[in-house]
Amino acid sequence: MFSFPYDWKQPYRWRTNLQRNLPWILVGWFGKGFDCEAEGGEHQWYNINNKNSGCYHCRVTREAQLWR
Fold first, then answer.
1. Which range marks the domain in which residue 66 is found?
2. Is 15 in contact with 4 (CB distance < 8 Å)?
3. What is the pLDDT of residues 9-65, one digit of tens each?
4. Measuring CA to CA, which residue among 66, 29, 64 is closest to residue 56?
5. Other C-beta atoms lying within 10 Å of the C-beta of residue 11
6. What domain count does the chain have?
7. How are beta strands 61-63 and 45-47 bridged, if at all?
8. pLDDT at residue 2 above 60?
């Protein structure tokens, strides 16, 4: 059964949700979006290397610990 934990009104989150529910062999078909904020959404940050943050849903990275 599919799990839909994301707000479908946020841009690009449907891609992340779809990737979580597909077999690993198919995940590479869906890339990340370009910029959540440019599309009216919010970023959800993760730790890249303890200095930089990346958004789970788009290609944006920033020099800061925004995941905290």
1. 7-23+32-68
2. no
3. 677 877 777 777 787 777 667 778 899 999 888 899 999 999 999 998 899 999 999
4. 66
5. 19
6. 1
7. unpaired
8. no
State how far the Cα of 28 lies from the Cα of 22, in Å rounded to an integer: 10
* Separation between Cα atoms, residue 39 and residue 67, nearest integer Å: 21
Q: What is the DSSP string of the chain?
A: -----S-TTSTTHHHHHHHHHS-HHHHTTS--BS-TGGGT----EEESSSSEEEESSBS-EEES-TT-
Whether 1 maps to a domain, the answer reads: no
Model pTM score: 0.70
pLDDT at 1 over 50: no
| Residue 15 forms part of a structural domain | yes
